C-alpha cells in the first residue's frame, strides 16, 4: 500500500477567533519561557506571516518576512530550495537583520524541512543568531527537522 501524506490546512483555525487567540497564547507562552531576549520574529511566506505577525505583536518585537523570490524591494539574499515536487526560491532583504541579532523563525508547517532549512540558510548569511525554528505542525514521517542540523526546533503538534 502507498503512503499518504496528511494535507495540512490551517484555515479553520484562522476562522475561529478563540482558537486563533489560543494558538497565539500557546506560542507566546513557549517563546517567553524559552528566550529572555529576542530581536525579531522571522515569518515564512505565506502562512508563516499569519502566525508570525500576531506573535511578534504580542511579544512587543518586530517582524521580518522571508518571501518567495521577486516580491521584496531593494537588495536581497536569495536561495533556491527543493520542494517535494520541484524547486522554489526564497529571499530576505539584505539589511533585514544585523549580525548577531537574535531571531525565532515561524511557519505553520514543517514537512520536508526544505522551506525552513532554506530560510535558516538566508539568516545565517546575514549572521543572525537563530534561537529556534517554531512551527504549529510537524509531519514527523518526513524527518524535516533533520534538515535543520543543530538549530533548535519546536513544534506544537506532531503527526506521524
Ligand atoms: O517543509 P516543506 O516541505 O518545505 O513544506 C512546508 C512549507 O510548505 C507550505 O508552504 P508553501 O510552499 O505551500 O507556500 P504557501 O505558505 O505560500 O502556501 C508551508 O506553509 C510551509 O512553508
Ligand atoms: N502536507 C502538506 N500540507 C499542506 N501544505 C504543504 N506544504 C508542503 N507539504 C504540505
Structural notes for this entry:
The longest helix has 18 residues, at 17-34. A 7-stranded mixed sheet has the order 3-4-2-1-5-6-7, with helices on both faces. The chain has helices at residues 11-15, 17-34, 47-59, 114-125, and strands at residues 40-44, 62-68, 76-82, 87-93, 102-110, 129-139, 153-159. The model has no long low-confidence stretch (mean pLDDT 96). A hairpin with a 4-residue loop joins strand 3 (76-82) and strand 4 (87-93). It has 4 helices and 7 strands. The chain has 160 residues and is α/β, with parallel strands linked by helices. The chain has a single domain, classed as 3-Layer(aba) Sandwich (Rossmann fold), CATH 3.40.50. Helix content is 30%, strand content 33%. Helix 2 (17-34) crosses helix 3. The structure holds 1-O-pyrophosphono-5-O-phosphono-alpha-D-ribofuranose and adenine (ADE). Residues 5-8, 109, 111, 139 line the site of adenine. The site of adenine has 7 residues, from loops. One of its GO terms (molecular function) is adenine phosphoribosyltransferase activity. Pathway: Purine metabolism; AMP biosynthesis via salvage pathway; AMP from adenine: step 1/1.
